[in-house]
């Protein structure tokens, strides 16, 4: 199957709704439940956070952000995330955010349409879980 990543602004509302609904499943389903229901490519957010933490938590051995790791490890991380979404719905392709569009319009990252309650949350009023 051929997947084409599209910029978030180009997605129809139905695609954004499907994407965010499937992302919610990564947050609300355990790995065991997800693998049983969606197959071996499913990984929930806990798995993804542990992957990131294991590979980036130690400043002396940050394989994700130091050197060439920034490219290769982020590609790997993005692919695992996308495959997890595709385990839920094979028609989903993870979109990208072209932040240069916002900067060309004089907007800061926290002013982007991506950083609002309707999309991925606000950078103006962070949510503090458990407080």
What does this structure look like?
It is built from 5 helices and no strands. It is globular, with a radius of gyration of 16 Å. With 131 residues, it is mainly alpha-helical.
Report the count of strand segments. Answer: 0
Summed up, the helix count is: 5
The profile of the biggest β sheet is:
none
Please tell me how large the radius of gyration is.
16 Å
pLDDT below 50 for ≥5 consecutive residues: which ranges?
none
Helix content: 40-55%
Element pattern in H and E: HHHHH
Envelope shape = globular
Describe the secondary-structure layout:
Elements: H1 13-28, H2 31-38, H3 45-56, H4 69-88, H5 99-104
Could you provide a short overview of the structure?
It contains five helices and no strands. It has 131 residues and is mostly helical.
Notable features of this structure?
globular, mainly alpha, single chain, 131 residues
């Amino acid at each position: 199957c051929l997947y084409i990543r599209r910029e978030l602004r180009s997605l129809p509302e139905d695609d954004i709704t499907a994407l965010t609904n499937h992302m919610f499943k990564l947050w609300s389903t355990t790995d065991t439940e997800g693998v049983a229901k969606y197959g071996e490519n499913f990984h929930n957010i806990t798995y993804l956070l542990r992957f990131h933490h294991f590979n980036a938590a130690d400043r002396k051995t940050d394989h994700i952000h130091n050197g060439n790791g920034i490219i290769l490890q982020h590609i790997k991380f993005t692919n695992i995330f996308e495959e997890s979404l595709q385990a839920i719905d094979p028609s989903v392709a993870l979109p990208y955010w072209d932040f240069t569009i916002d900067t060309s319009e004089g907007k800061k990252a926290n002013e982007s349409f991506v950083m609002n309650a309707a999309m991925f949350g606000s950078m103006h009023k962070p949510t503090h879980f458990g407080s």
